[in-house]
Amino acid sequence: MKLGEKQVLTVVKKVDFGVYLGSDEERVLLPKKQVPAGIEAGDPVEVFLYKDSSDRMIATTNEPKLMLGELAVLDVVDVGRIGAFLDWGLEKDLLLPFKEQTVKVEKGDRCLVSLYVDKSGRLCATMKVYPLLRTDSPYKKDDMVTGTVYDISKDIGVFVAVDNQYSALIPRREVYGRMHMGQQIDARVTAVKADGKLDLSVRGKIPEQMDKDADLIMERIMRNGGALLFTDKAAPERIKAELGMSKAAFKRAVGRLLKQGKITIDEKQGKILQSNRNGL
């Protein structure tokens, strides 16, 4: 019998509180409320095996959201003395021990995890999924992909599991705005490394991104009553904090808006103003 996996077992005995599956030498209980109607001794049943709150092996016909060898994004439903508890579709929540958390999680968070059997023979979750991610993705440069944020490093960038199975990174220079663990993102592949890992960007190619950045700047100017209180001479940190873009991207977008006649720059006041052509 394989803990943490789905398997087909045979009914060996019916009792008032369920049926026993397996063989005369090794058997596991399938509780009565899980037993399919009309089942008899000798019939096969597909079940998932895990341990109940008393650490006894038990079978279920319910579908778990995660099995051994898989990755899944699960919701944190509670935090206790020894770790967090995740909803994985079964009656007993799945333990995510504190030592298996790459960052501290709270109730209501979502996190990408895999399943493992601990030293006591119990199924537990871990956020340390990096070694399990594959490097044989079918994606190439400029493909659009979807993934889950599973780790964040201030020095390196944001680690993403594309399709929840392929190893990818948004390098620090490409990180814009706030990102959080468990976040689902859409990104563009900027490079496929020699080892098969992907580099990603949440920004589009420069021509398309320039239009989006220009729209964002105009939206901010109009929201502020027709002015942006800094120019392209501002510090890169301020530009990124205010608009979520690099100084280079800001300068490109400002240049486009100037060329289109939508803005003017007041160097004395250090402001970008909406052009008179646009109603001021």
Automatic annotation (TrEMBL):
Coiled coil: none annotated. InterPro entries: CvfB_fam, CvfB_S1_3rd, CvfB_S1_st, CvfB_WH, NA-bd_OB-fold, S1_domain, WH-like_DNA-bd_sf. It comes from the Bacteria. One of its GO terms (molecular function) is nucleic acid binding. Residues 142-203 form the S1 motif domain. It holds the Pfam family S1_2. PROSITE patterns: S1. Gene3D superfamilies: Nucleic acid-binding proteins, Winged helix-like DNA-binding domain superfamily/Winged helix DNA-binding domain. PANTHER family: CONSERVED VIRULENCE FACTOR B (PTHR37296). Belongs to the CvfB family. This is S1 RNA-binding domain-containing protein.
